[in-house]
Write a structure and sequence with these properties.
single chain; 498 residues; alpha/beta; Leucine Aminopeptidase, subunit E, domain 1; Aminopeptidase; 2 domains; nine-stranded mixed sheet; six-stranded mixed sheet; 16 helices; elongated
Length: 498
């Protein structure tokens, strides 16, 4: 982490320490110049006339002011215009960016004057979540992954003090956010870890060690147990690697009677070379993150336990390395999956759906009320939706609507794509029950239709293809530098309202 954050709640009165900063928002102010002048007079500060003119101009958006004397030494002013471009991610994104600015200067504390919730009710719904997005911004922007750098900057402490009238709402929002961010950090650590150290079994070990602290039971089904259970899909994909495959099974049970039982399944390909259908070098560079779906499941269980959510959750992560060797599975092979259905392999680089076949059947056997899976499954989904949203595939309208709503609320957005049975003909096999690859067109959909073959039709199920938003991208201040942990905040919101 860039800073050791100490996030605090405080009322309206501000006492500045040495090397302190202040954040102030002006929200849709009709008398902007008057309010601006009053603000600086209250601080007994003089501001450069040109800076003032530029900020008050219609094109002006923000002002960073460095004081020559007294405290605060740094003042950050930001206009907030509640129009069609305003999103629920505004404060989260702003404070994540502010962390980047603070990294460049010497500052010990930052005071945030929180604007009134009344002006934002339409967008945030409730006051706690309004405040929570601000805390999340600091947390998400503060993430870094530098464990393999030989030279590291010293981690300095940064006090973040939010000033707001409703102290109960503020304290609750801070606690919620810190629990969620802690879980997102662990998820991101797993995804950003190189494949040379994070093998399938090591993923299981780290998961078990971490989650045991929160009362979550973790079982690692190793190669011997996979063979005993005839989980041939996972065994085939992982067969060529010296690092043996496994399946990680996690169980979270609340202390009170659970409202429902949900199975979460995540693709855990710790490295994907493409197998015999080998990728080019450029295609392999990000493949340490091909287990991001599994990491989301792990992080979600951790968050659920920390937040004491009243939902029973079974987490299932099939983990394997898709490598090349004399024991590689081959295009043209027929695999008899755990469910008993046969799979014709047309492309060994469509391996994620194969290991998920065994995991989804196992999930169905647990008789949950719902199954939701996460996978960096197809480049086709990223082509269709870009890096902004995950693809959502389901036949269940209620499940779809709830996931979409949680996506809008957390800004981890999902978009529902067609899932008609017409697409089944594209993965039909002449020699097996199903083919692992369809034609070029509709590739994200046919991948989802493949998975559907291994889910109990009586259980509501949704598939989320997170291939785009799981990988680092430039679209927000908190996704620029490292792989993102997309999906944890989405699922926490979904489970909290289930």
């Amino acid at each position: 982490m860039y800073f050791k954050l100490n996030i605090q709640s405080a009322k309206d009165e501000i006492k500045f320490d040495k090397d302190s900063g202040l954040v102030k928002f002006f929200v849709d102010s009709n008398n902007l110049e008057k309010h601006f002048n009053n603000f600086y007079e209250s601080l007994n500060k003089n501001i450069n006339p040109l800076q003032k003119k530029n900020f008050l101009d219609k094109k002006g958006d923000a002002l960073n002011y460095y004081s020559e004397y007294g405290e605060p030494s740094n003042i950050y002013i930001k206009k907030v215009k509640i129009d069609d471009d305003f999103t629920i991610d505004f404060f989260r994104n702003y404070f994540a960016g502010l962390i980047s600015d603070i990294r460049k200067i010497k500052i010990n504390s930052i005071h945030v004057v929180v604007p009134s919730f009344n002006k934002f009710k339409k967008h945030f719904g409730d006051e706690v979540y309004f405040l929570q997005t601000m805390v999340e911004g600091f947390g998400l922007g503060n993430y870094s992954f530098d464990k393999y750098k030989s030279s590291k900057d010293k981690t300095e402490s940064l006090n973040v003090i939010f000033h707001y009238t409703n102290q109960n709402a503020l304290k609750k929002s801070i606690q919620n956010a810190l629990n969620i961010i802690d879980s997102v950090y662990f998820t991101r650590d797993l995804v950003n870890e190189p494949a040379i150290t994070l093998t399938p079994i090591e993923l299981g070990r780290r998961t078990k060690k971490k989650l045991s602290k929160f009362g979550i039971k973790t079982t690692i089904l190793d190669k011997r147990q996979l063979i005993k259970r005839k989980m041939n899909a996972i065994l085939s994909v992982g067969g060529a690697s010296e690092n043996q495959p496994c399946m990680i099974v996690m169980s979270y049970k609340p202390k009170i009677k659970p409202r429902k039982k949900i199975a979460l399944v995540g693709k855990g390909v710790t490295y994907d070379s493409g197998g015999l259908s080998i990728k080019p070098t450029s295609g392999m560079l990000k493949m340490k993150a091909d287990m991001a779906g599994g990491a989301v499941v792990i992080g979600t269980l951790m968050a659920a336990a920390k937040l004491k959510l009243p939902i029973q959750i079974i987490g299932i992560v099939p983990a394997a390395e898709n490598m090349i060797g004399g024991k590689s599975y081959k295009p043209g092979d027929i695999i008899r999956a755990y469910s008993g259905k046969s799979i014709e392999v047309k492309d060994t680089d469509a391996e994620g759906r194969i290991i998920l076949a065994d995991a989804l059947h196992y999930a169905s056997q647990q008789k949950p009320d719902e199954i939701i899976d996460f996978a960096t499954l197809t480049g086709a989904c990223a082509v269709a939706l870009g890096l902004i949203a995950a693809g959502l595939f389901t036949k269940n309208d209620q499940l779809s609507n709830k996931l979409i709503n949680s996506g809008q609320r957390t800004f981890e957005r999902v978009w529902r794509l067609p899932f008609w049975n017409d697409y089944n003909s594209q993965i039909k096999s002449e020699i097996a029950d199903v083919s692992n690859l369809g034609p070029r067109w509709g590739g994200a959909i046919t991948a989802g239709k493949f998975l559907e073959h291994f889910v109990d039709k009586k259980i509501p199920w949704a598939h989320l293809d997170i291939a785009g938003p799981a990988i680092k991208h430039e679209l927000t201040n908190y996704t620029k530098e490292f792989d993102t942990g997309f999906g944890v905040r989405l699922m926490v919101d979904y489970l909290s309202t289930s």
